[in-house]
Amino acid sequence: METIWLNSKTKVPTIKKTAVNRKRLYQLLEEGNSTKLTIVQAPAGYGKTTILSQWINQLDENTSWLSLDAIDNDPIRFWKYLIQSVSDTLNNHLDTRLSPLFTSHPHSPFELIIDSLLNELDSIKENLHIFIDDYHFIEHPFIHELMIRFIEYLPSTTRVYIISRTKISLPISRWRVKSWITEIGIEQLSFTYSEIGDLYKKQNLDFYDDIGLQGVLDKTEGWAAGIQLACLSIETDTVHIDRFDGTHPYVAEFLIKEILDTLPLTTQHFLVQTSILNMLEPEDCNSLTNRSDSYDVLVELVEKGIFTIQLSSKNPVFRYHHLFADALQAELKNFYTEEEVMAIYKGAGNLLCKKGDYIAAIELVLQQQLFVLADSWITTYLVDIFTTGQIATFVRWVDLLRIKNYPLPLETIVMYTIALTSLSDLQKANQIIIELDQRHTVDQWMDHPENQGVASILITLKAYIITAIGDEKAQTVEIILTQLEKGRVSSRWDHIPMQYNQFEPKLFRTLIGSKGKFTPVDQSIAFAQFFRQTEFKEQNMMGFSYGVLAETMYEVNLFEDALNEIEGGLQYAYRFQDTGLSIPLYLLKSRIYIAKKQFATAQAVLDHAIEGVTEWYWIRSLQALKAYCYLMESDIKNAEIELFKTKRPDILKIELGQEFWLLVYVRFLLATNRFKEALKIVIRVKEKSSNEDQISTMIEASILESLCYMKVNQKEPAYAALHKALEIGSPYGYKRSFIDESDIIPLLKKYVTFRKKNSSKHWESVPLSYVEDLLRTSPITDESRKDILTPREMDVLQLLASGASNREIASQLFLSEGTIRVYLTTIYSKLEVQSRSQAILLAKEWDL
Fold first, then answer.
1. Residue 501: helix, strand or coil by DSSP?
2. Which of 12, 92, 669, 803 has the highest count of CB atoms within 10 angstroms of its CB?
3. Looking at domain 195-346, does it have CATH number 1.10.10.10?
């Protein structure tokens, strides 16, 4: 069963006929068109929603609306609703294109969702206004973080309006200094004397004299809800204006005594019972109240101005003003016994569940601590909770139940652990696993037949978390081998395919790739062969085993073996339509051809991959490697074109999956002699990868850092950075990460010389034998390769390196230009280079 998404939340509230035209506020909102964000902030009852609904009617541009409530305090739910709202407005299937980010398992990083939304908005040429009502319900810090990211990178054609009762957790002062925001508060929203007069005229209360209007203004201080309450008081003749104070703290008491108590008793019961629903659909209200005229009652309440708002006219949906709903809910216990109140909540919950809105149903019964009912629904809809991505909401529910010492089912606890892992709370997830292990020691719950499926999931999760938080590679392998020997255990989670990589261009950077901490290749091959003979061979994880082994083989310089693994992995990628596997494999395949100096083939592989994807983050990585390929050919111009085909990332803010692009950009900066700029970026990448314990990226960044230091003639920092890369890489046998850098061999040689002269124990963490092996591995730049060239060919190469043209070389060697061209062709072939510039670079490495 899929989660129901309420269209009424994305509809602009209907404006009452009696609403006052407040031109001065329209002017403020019009001025806000020059800023990124308009914040309308005031306590309840100041007409925030009404004025923005009116403003939308003034606009002749695209507008989207989202009404929030407490249930939306979940990052996935919040952003899915916001994207749905924008998609409905633009009618451009934006929600469909971004849907895979929400349906992947585990779910995509939230930053990826925001960046993808921003890329979509950036392609829209028309102006778009996004209205977010009742933002004060949002307390989840990560939603605020993502909103900051969203606002700061907002395209110039998009404007956001946030409506809130309270101050919001966004960097308002910083944005204020940048002139990014327009602010509308109590002072601006308060009704003026003339506006109160206009309202009362529309209410046909013309008998009010100037003194009476001034009295209303004095008593209410322009508070819209207070003015409406005073208006209702006069209409019903229940209270004199001098008895009403709009700033009085007992507004709820006034709402009950002076509004609710004046209505027919049947209407009072209707209001109190339905107040627990966030959205009022007439059919639901009929079911809850056992009546058939709910639509008529709601329309009458709207027409009388009794704090009821119509959200949609096509499929009628209403809601009570928040002040009114709060007051009505407080009255439940005065109208009904405790048992009757519980029955009302159960009835409303069952009603919502039958409609498919089980999230709202569970929230509702949890409010009344109906834990058994909440637990039963959580268990029933647990798979759907995960597939729809409402992980943060699930964690909040379980936290509440655990605080109340409610005994949760084992499956719920295991999935709670997975949810914590998805939210990157690995330490807490590990603590729950320890609790479950301790429980098994007491009652052997994992051995019970009914628990086999969930126990299998837990054991796999345990291996995953051990890999993520430490270096216990042996323990991880032991756990996996035990799992393989036991075989697969079916459960209701089997049909949910796992996505082991969502945006990383290298599988080494994922948890399944152990963040680059690979085992020796012979052990990896033996494990892979065993793995591929088990019943897991039909699972998509098998494709990733091919991919990780391919990256390992490439790293230790086994090209042909790596290519075979790539082809095996691609078969799984095609079968499961998994770009998280296919794109890293295409990137790796291209790198192999680049290492072989087969640049045309490498570019063809990348072009083929680009044709098959639409996601901007994959295209960015593929174009980055195309740029790298051009750099290896010394084609600076085309390298720059490829780097900036997609929108240039913010180099001061290392964002999601940007490291790959940035490190290619560093190489571009080195090639264009912008050494200090390159150094600044690569240090930031190195620090981030170190914080994330990303081994392969730390090595790559440290190598480039050492090259940057050498370019600015800082030898000691260069040796230190290179030593760090070697220190990280030597335990795992990294090779290609070093020798793929065209300028690294001379530096490695200088490092060896430096080491032999320096006896400090600090440097002993890297065996010199490891460095010497790297030098032997490089087939092109080893000086022994000079012996391949004849003395005459060496003469030609030396003159070439000096910058001489073919004519000048021919003149100095007393040969024809045609002969020189033949010599150069032979030299290129022997040195395995494809261009003049590459031959010159190689000659300079040899100090010719």
1. coil
2. 669
3. yes
